Amino acid sequence: MACYDPAEDPCEKFILVDEAGHNAGFATYVEELATKLFAQGARWFPRRRVASVAPRDPGLALTFASGAQATAEKTILNIPQRPLLEIMRGSPSLGLDASAFAAAHAVQTEVVTKLYLYYDVAWWRELGLTSGDFKLDGDAANMPLKGRYHDGDVICDDEDDPATCRGFLLAVYNHDYSGEAAMFFRRYQRERPEPVTILSGATPEGAAFLAHAHERLLECHVYMEDPPYTAYEASTVIGGAAPPTFGVLATWNAATLGAGGGWHGWTDLGLSDAMPAALAAHGAFVVNEAYSLVQGWAEGSLQAADAVLADHFGLARPWDFAASEYPVHVAQTAKAACEAATATVPNGTSGGDTGAYDDDALCFLGNASLLLADGRRVPLSSARVGDRVATGFGGGAGTVTKVLKHAVDAGSRVALVAAADGLVGTATHPIYLGGAWVPLDRVGARAAVAASALYNLEIDGDRPGASNHSYVVGGVVASGLGDGVELNARFRRQASWQKKTAGAASA
User: Fold this and answer.
1) Contact at 8 Å (CB) between 480 and 468?
2) Rounded distance, CA 264 to CA 291, Å?
3) What is the distance between the alpha carbons of residues 389 and 400, in angstroms, rounded to a whole number?
């Protein structure tokens, strides 16, 4: 094993390498497990799609899309959400009720795109770029970039001479639920059983794609902020390098056979145990990252496998250390992150879960300057229920109906934005600017800031539709459960408030 990012000290993320120290890929781990399994007499039938299952005593009868059938006392379904739903829909004899399907739909699929470019000369090494990442926004005509220098495997004939290095550059690693970040690449995606499309410079289309990618990389690095090189050096080194020989494009979306996407995120964490339980009663056990507590990572599927083998097959875990079992990737949960269900603490402050922080929590640092209705300024952390604050709209004032506090593990680094008047808050917190609600990072650049707690205010939470639900912090007008139409449409934080507003309007 080797450290994933050579600049990370101490190392926390590791990769598998071969005897020469080159990236071996995560598939190496899976292949080794399969080899040991086959040695025990297991058989594998790839690309055999299960169409339906039916109860048998004991176990299940499986019918494949080809018409072939098999029976098993116990069945492990190592498939993601989309094919699992297809099996459930095609198996009425299981008698699954509405609650089982509600549990199956408690996760959503995220669209993922990766692009590796192979260069005969690894020019980024010549610029001294061996770790870290880069980004350049794109559109329908211009390839978006979001890559890392240390991710792709690079081989050097002489480690002291960057000009002798060749290998892969991770140019794109985009993921979102809408698939918007991957829109540019869909036109290049092939109809195929695997998520990978090879774009070769030997074909006219491939050559055009690779030339464009190279031009975008040149643009990105010439105009990069605070690089370890001059713009002239970037122009000379990258501009003088030949375009990549080929590209490896991986697209995990609705068209990806047997997957439907790259990974999943919970929509209702309260149903995390319901999906496995719905099928376990029939001797079918779900093993995947989709319904795990570590979504987006292979660890989720591995932990699910450990649990199934221990609980239903009597097989002890092959190690004695304790793996984490907390949700590290919980997206679009039913509850807003700032209002995590925890014990209420004095002064109307709601304690939050500790751990990694998500921009969608929409909070600020406690030392942010809060403007009161009488013109005084106080730290945001000192706000209390009942305080009268300026709303930022025509001299209006509102009442604090809840103080929201999100605790963060000591020393955790939180993605925040430094904006006007020294304001530091989450990048997507809505602020009122130029007559519209926009994210905070519209007025400040993203930065990583150490924080122990983050705060937000609910303003006039008892008055749906009758208030601006805003407050002035750090010199800008910020949302405090704003009920504007545009605000509700843009920010998930407002979803529950939108329902309240709709209810008030119909009353």
Assistant:
1) no
2) 8
3) 7
Radius of gyration for the alpha carbons in the chain, expressed in angstroms and rounded: 26
Alpha-carbon gap, residue 330 to 341, rounded angstroms: 14
Please work out, in degrees rounded to the nearest 5, the angle formed at the alpha carbon of residue 361 by the alpha carbons of 358 and 367: 105
Among candidates 129, 110, 112, 12, which has minimal Cα distance to 413? 12
Judged by DSSP in three states, 441 sits in helix
What kind and span of H or E run contains 216? helix 204-222
CA separation, residue 504 to residues 166, 452, 464, 485, 497 (Å):
63, 37, 6, 14, 11
Count CB-CB contacts under 10 A for residue 497: 23
Cα(79)–Cα(153) distance, rounded to whole angstroms? 29
Q: Where are the domains of the chain?
A: 109-252, 337-506
SS3 127: coil
pTM, full prediction: 0.64
Residue 488 in tokens: 């509700």
Q: What is the pLDDT of residue 119?
A: 98
**The token pair that represents 292 in the structure block:** 């795990």
Q: Which residues contact 24 (CB under 8 A, 6 or more apart)?
A: 15, 16, 17, 18
3-state secondary structure of 451: coil
Give the mean pLDDT per block of 10 residues along the chain (507 residues).
84 85 86 89 82 91 93 90 94 94 92 97 95 92 95 92 95 92 90 87 97 96 90 94 97 85 86 85 91 85 88 82 50 41 30 34 84 93 93 89 76 67 81 81 72 85 80 90 59 56 59
Q: 337-506 architecture in CATH?
A: Beta Complex (2.170)
Which helix (H) or strand (E) segment holds residue 57: the answer is: none
